[in-house]
Amino acid sequence: MKPQKHNYITLAFMAAGLLSTASMSWAAQVPAGTQLAEKQELVRNNGNEPATLDPHRVESDVEGNIIRDIFEGLVSVNQDGSIAPRLADKWEQKDNTVWTFHLRPGITWSDGTAITAHDVVWSWQRLVDPKTSSPYASYPGSMHIVNAEEIASGKKSPDTLGVKALDDNTLQVTLTQPNAVFLSMLDHYVMVPVDPVLVKRFGDKWTQPQHIVTSGAYTPTEWVVNERIVAKRNPKYWDNEHTVINKVTYLPINSEASDVNRYKAGEIDIVYTLPINQFTQLKKTLGSEVNVAPQLATAYYQFNTTKAPFNDPRVRLALNMGLDKDIIAEKVLGQGQRAAWLVSQPEIGGVTLKNPDYASWPREKRIAEAKKLLAEAGFGENHPLSFNLLYNTSESLQRLAIAASSMWKKNLGVEAKLQNQEWKTMLDAMHTGSYDVVRYAWIADYDDASSFLNNFRTGDSQNTTKYSNADFDQALTEASKATDVAKRRDYYQKAEDILAKDVPAIPVYHYVRTHLMKPWVGGFTPDKLGFYFTKDMYIIKH
């Protein structure tokens, strides 16, 4: 989101303990003299059919892209990392452990009923409640909200969560310890409030267009499964006066080729991602319509560490060493991706992390060591390792899987049998442990290494590898306490070093985000996490 340059909330205000704003606009910034189209409607492909639009039951950008358009949290993070007010217009803190947020006067749901601090309390209690089965149930615990971890593990009741409404417009959050990235972590789509009345009345059907009420710039009006979701401008939105686009349509096209073809036919304004095998040609023919931006995201192949032989770290490390990652990044993908040896990122949250030593070894040395590790684990020419490699349906991911399986076969004599499933089916397989090795990726929830590393903590709701290492957990605990950036970096490095030895997941490449965008779409500014907001955009006369 493009920031107002004169309205930054700086770290100096945070250190002083008081952050307050008057009237701010953080939406579409239309340059003076721009002629807008009479019809302000946008069609964007979203890559897949969302599993749900319930913020407490989602776990990917497929859902997050839409939820960020239709709901809002207390704050958001600007492009430069500064914190912007959203549903809360000011806040203060004491000792960096007690945070008090003041909601904007008069904010309402899309049906005109008041949004209150009680709604936020109920929503966060629902998120951590084991009965909700949220993939992000562990997230408030990672934020160090009092009792969040114990509630998510079933040891305490949701009403003990360290959040309370002091009155209808004032929310108080208590942490177990200072958390340097607490405000950044608040800007996550699972932390948005939902309407308790609606959820209680309609149960699992509360997100259907005929029932849903929203707090963001748009409200869904139509949902045809596997075809489209349509959302229209919410006139009750607190910042509606700065919204320009009146209607947005999200398409669930998972075929990148079909996505591009429909774009060329004029049916789509923004393509979700570009096919690997068409990228060079599209850059030549469409030029400035091709948008490439760095993204805090890592793709990896993760293991079911409870299942033999992947309960043996030697096997996992061997497969990590047996991939030619530079070839994957530069030749198979070739859009600007970088080979990955870290689960998080080389540069993130103001720190720089080092790759493991074996990342710089000559290729021949890595492969020789990988063969040695497999032999120690009982695998070789007479007893080759064989497993199923699962990925979600996509031409690019199929191309990647073919390349990886070929490298393992050529380098190590390993047989990886390819399997593909639709997105929602694959997520179910991951959470039930019904896989050997699965291709997955993680987009940072906030600009800090812990956003990636927390997924491998013992018992974390996103830890579908079921990996557990007490030293790793302790490193993350110490990092979260560290107030000094250098110390936090040291703990993150220790955590990455442990993962480099244990390899619950093989980092394959660090992302770039690629799009096609019509020249008449203005205000398209993806953030570091890859999100872009319809309320920031506008259609130029054409």
What does this structure look like?
With 542 residues, this protein is of the alpha+beta class. The protein has 17 helices and 21 strands. The protein has helices at 11-16, 61-70, 117-128, 139-142, 148-152, 182-186, 196-202, 256-264, 279-286, 313-321, 325-333, 363-376, 395-412, 423-432, 450-453, 470-481, 485-502, and strands spanning 18-20, 41-45, 75-77, 83-85, 88-94, 98-103, 163-167, 170-174, 218-224, 228-233, 247-251, 290-303, 338-339, 347-348, 351-352, 386-392, 415-421, 437-443, 505-516, 521-522, 538-539. Strands 13-19-12-18-16-17 form a 6-stranded mixed beta sheet. The longest helix has 18 residues, at 395-412. The relative contact order is 0.16. The model is unreliable at 1-25 (pLDDT under 50).
Key attributes of the depicted protein:
542 residues; alpha+beta; six-stranded mixed sheet; five-stranded antiparallel sheet; 17 helices; 21 strands; globular; disordered N terminus
Mean of residue pLDDT values = 93
User: What structural class do the secondary elements suggest?
Assistant: alpha+beta
Count of separate DSSP helical elements: 17
Shape assignment: globular
- Report the sheet-strand fraction: 15-25%
Strand order of the main beta sheet, please? 13-19-12-18-16-17
Q: Biggest sheet, in brief?
A: 6 strands, mixed
Q: What is the helical fraction, as a range of percent? A: 25-40%
N- and C-termini, Cα separation: 24 Å
Number of strands: 21
Radius of gyration from the alpha-carbon trace, in angstroms: 23 Å
- Model regions low in confidence, pLDDT < 50 over at least 5 residues: 1-25
